[in-house]
């Protein structure tokens, strides 16, 4: 019986230069180097990427959905942060 | 949490799904939702992993380099699909090791179709065409299922799987247009894989136990019988096109229904295979458990190496 299991890694792939890295899944690997090699085989078999990031899952801090109210609701009533909030006559151009 | 609070949470939860909202790993979910998903998703992952075995059997004996690279790529995809699905299942709080343990002890099931043997090259054609064809019919609706990580994994799987069916059909077509021995081989493979492929879409609706709840959670969009009818209706013309005969004397176009009527499925056979008495159940488990046990020293060595590198790095940093 193995004493230690390979840790879990989160995989982020940049599909082409100019675009951001995007989370595409996770996998188990003994270390970062192996996580990169495995990510290549698991997530980029069809030219899906030009760059890979791997992050050990335990290093990610995630917000808790239970706090979604206090975190995200305050933005909902701030309509003045959007351009459509401001009334301008139709004659104004380039704005 | 009081029972009343749980009921209220459950109600909100069902409403979110009804509105087509996705459920993500850290969201509250009913225990039954978690358990049902762990069961279905891990079975799906196990099927991908065990599904490599019948085809792996033919990689070294593929009749040409073209066939060999295609089959190898297909089996690699299945490994990948198993991994997407295992990691999606882990987001529900079960570890990879627990899932392997369930597979290896027989507690978890995998698709019964993989308990049939692959005795000729034509079986590679029949599996791609029929087994992957039936799998696609099952899987496409899951791209829209309510659990986010499962839906995302299924989108990747479905995108990659369409080549699997096409390569299988191409193999069958080539054989069906070949010498009379080759045509016989193709027909024989169709004869052996047809009925198990129909069974693969699951028991008939009147005995299927999970349908109602699974429909609500969008783990299922169509009933087993509807999926089976869809599979038959789309596959029969494909067989006709390459001059092969579906091994069902009762198969007949029903003008009124706009569908094919078909013969009785031998459900005793299905349940026998599910219960572990199929032709290859023991063989498959032996191969799977063997691969896991024989790989143990590699997994341990990789971990020891990673730890050694880490320690060295820390020492140098001091």
* Strands of chain B, total number: 2
The main pleated sheet of chain A reads as: 3 strands, antiparallel
Count of individual beta strands of chain A:
3
**Which series of helices and strands of chain A comes N to C?**
EEHEH
Main beta-sheet annotation of chain B: 2 strands, antiparallel
What is the C-alpha radius of gyration of chain B, as a whole number of Å?
A: 22 Å
H and E order of chain B: HHHHHHHHHHEEHHH
Mean pLDDT of chain A: 94
Low-confidence stretches of chain A: none
Helix proportion of residues of chain B, in percent? 55-70%
What portion of residues of chain A belong to β-strands?
Answer: 15-25%
Q: Rg of chain A from C-alpha positions?
A: 21 Å
Ends distance of chain B: 50 Å
Low-confidence stretches of chain B: none
Q: What structural class do helix, strand and pairing data of chain B support? A: mainly alpha
Helix content of chain A: 10-25%
Shape of chain B: globular
Q: Numbering strands along the chain, what is their spatial order in the largest sheet of chain B? A: 1-2
| Computed structural class of chain A | alpha+beta
The oligomeric state is: heterodimer
Major protein interface: A-B, 22 and 28 residues
Could you please describe the fold and organization of this structure?
The complex is a heterodimer of chains A (95) and B (318). With 95 residues, chain A is α+β, with helices and mostly antiparallel strands. Helix content of chain A is 18%, strand content 22%. Chain A has a 3-stranded antiparallel beta sheet with strand order 2-1-3, with helices on one face. Chain B is mainly alpha-helical and 318 residues long. Helices cover 69% and strands 2% of the residues of chain B. In chain B, helix 3 runs antiparallel to helix 4, helix 4 runs antiparallel to helix 7 and helix 7 (148-176) runs antiparallel to helix 8 (180-200). The mean pLDDT of chain B is 95. Classes of the chains: A alpha+beta (95), B mainly alpha (318).
């Amino acid at each position: 019986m193995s004493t230690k299991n390979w840790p879990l890694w989160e995989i982020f792939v940049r599909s082409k230069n100019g675009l951001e890295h995007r989370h595409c899944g996770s996998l188990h690997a003994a270390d970062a180097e192996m996580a990169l090699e495995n990510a290549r085989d698991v997530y980029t078999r069809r030219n899906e990427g030009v760059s890979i990031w791997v992050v050990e899952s335990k290093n990610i801090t995630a917000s808790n959905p239970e706090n979604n109210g206090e975190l995200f609701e305050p933005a909902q009533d701030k309509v003045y942060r959007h351009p459509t909030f401001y009334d301008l006559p139709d004659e104004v151009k380039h704005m | 949490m009081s029972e009343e609070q749980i009921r209220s949470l459950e109600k909100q939860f069902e409403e979110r799904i009804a509105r087509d909202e996705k459920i993500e790993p850290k969201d509250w979910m009913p225990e039954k939702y978690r358990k049902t998903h762990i069961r279905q998703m891990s079975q799906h992952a196990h099927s991908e992993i065990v599904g490599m075995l019948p085809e792996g059997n033919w990689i070294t004996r593929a009749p040409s380099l073209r066939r060999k690279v295609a089959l190898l790529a297909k089996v690699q995809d299945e490994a990948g699909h198993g991994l997407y699905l295992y990691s999606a299942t882990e987001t529900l709080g079960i570890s990879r090791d627990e899932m392997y343990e369930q597979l290896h002890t027989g507690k978890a099931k995998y698709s019964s179709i993989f308990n049939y043997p692959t005795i000729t090259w034509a079986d590679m054609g029949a599996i791609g065409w029929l087994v992957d064809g039936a799998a696609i019919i099952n899987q496409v609706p899951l791209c829209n299922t309510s659990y986010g990580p499962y839906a995302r994994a299924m989108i990747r799987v479905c995108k990659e799987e369409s080549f699997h069916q096409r390569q299988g059909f191409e193999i069958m077509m080539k054989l069906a247009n070949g010498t009379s021995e080759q045509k016989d081989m193709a027909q024989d493979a169709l004869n052996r894989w047809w009925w198990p492929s129909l069974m693969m879409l699951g028991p008939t609706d009147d005995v299927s136990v999970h349908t109602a709840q699974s429909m609500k959670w969008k783990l299922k969009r169509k009933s087993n019988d509807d999926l089976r009818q869809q599979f038959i209706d789309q596959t029969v013309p494909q067989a006709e096109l390459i001059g092969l005969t579906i091994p069902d004397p009762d198969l007949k176009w029903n003008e009124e229904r706009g569908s094919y009527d078909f013969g009785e499925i031998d459900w005793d056979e299905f349940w026998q295979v599910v219960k572990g008495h199929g032709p290859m159940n023991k063989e498959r488990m032996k191969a799977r458990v063997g691969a896991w046990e024989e790989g143990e020293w590699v997994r341990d060595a990789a971990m020891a190496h990673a730890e050694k590198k880490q320690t060295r790095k820390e020492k140098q940093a001091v």
